[in-house]
Description:
Two copies of one chain form a homodimer.
Chain A: H1 8-29, H2 32-39, H3 43-50, H4 53-64, H5 77-86, H6 90-109, H7 111-139, H8 152-167, H9 173-187
Helix pairs in contact in A: 1-2, 1-4, 1-6, 4-7, 5-9, 6-7, 8-9
Amino acid sequence: xxRSRLTPERESELxxxxxxxxxxxxxxxxxxxxxxxxxxxxxxxxxxxxxxxxELVAKALRHNKPAGLAEIDxxxxxxxxxxxxxxxxxxxxxxxxxxxxxxxxxVHENPELHRALRELLIEPEMSEFDEVLRRAVDRGEVSADxxxxxxxxxxxxxxxxxxxLIEDRPVDRAFLAVYVDAVVLPSLGV
Amino acid sequence: xxRSRLTPERESELxxxxxxxxxxxxxxxxxxxxxxxxxxxxxxxxxxxxxxxxELVAKALRHNKPAGLAEIDxxxxxxxxxxxxxxxxxxxxxxxxxxxxxxxxxVHENPELHRALRELLIEPEMSEFDEVLRRAVDRGEVSADxxxxxxxxxxxxxxxxxxxLIEDRPVDRAFLAVYVDAVVLPSLGV
Lengths: 190, 190
């Protein structure tokens, strides 16, 4: 795909607008027309650049993620998890949680969105987590055959999505730090 | 509320119709007119009996739940969890998972639904889990100050909702049994 005509700043602006719209109207309500309108670009540019709405949304979400989780390497698994938490502020987490709730529903009805999210967001992020876990296994902190190694995304997703639903409280760093220490690390035998 | 005019069979039928509609059109798409139409009842009856759409939906969901989780008492926490899993079949779980994904989104935009679900579904179910956990604490299986005691719903919700999203596979009994053994019990120190 030819991306040469968009500066990184312009691309960022577009992704921010997509995420704002996603929070305001949800995936089904988001139209390429609305993105074009809000960003003062043409629909032709959007389609040339991103191909489709699911791809645009998945790339916007990926853009939103702090890069290079796998580069965090504090020397202990607990240190790595807590360093990850340090990198996101509470306000951002609350926004992410709302987006994830909306998307968990939307992917159910939009297989194309599901595919784009898996390919562009879920799988790359899982690879980064796998890298952090692999180092813990190499250090001997976690047993290589611990079945919880494959369940980390499920545990974290539960923390993110369930707290607002069950406790009626937003997800924040303090809660996730407790969850990591009380659920994630014990399941991994750390 | 006067419930005298509905037999338990008729009430069941109504709840089933509400859940079918919920799966077909989602919470926002579900109207009291559609419920009345499908069940050949009058809207006046529905409102007299349930007061509002959020209350009707919450009661239909509660009706759908296997009763008396707290009565399961096998003598060990692991036994209790696995006995709970035995009580639901895979097909039912897949349906529940789809409903939960839809509702996680809907409650975000419908505080009245959130309130009804918390009061009629989430809190009663959490009380039942608390009872099962309390017995494990009394038996000395789980330490009374284990922080994971308060995080069980989050762990389970993650397993239910994340598997289709992350692995593109439905939730089934075999997966939940692995999750209970690999995540839930270790976090509780069992």
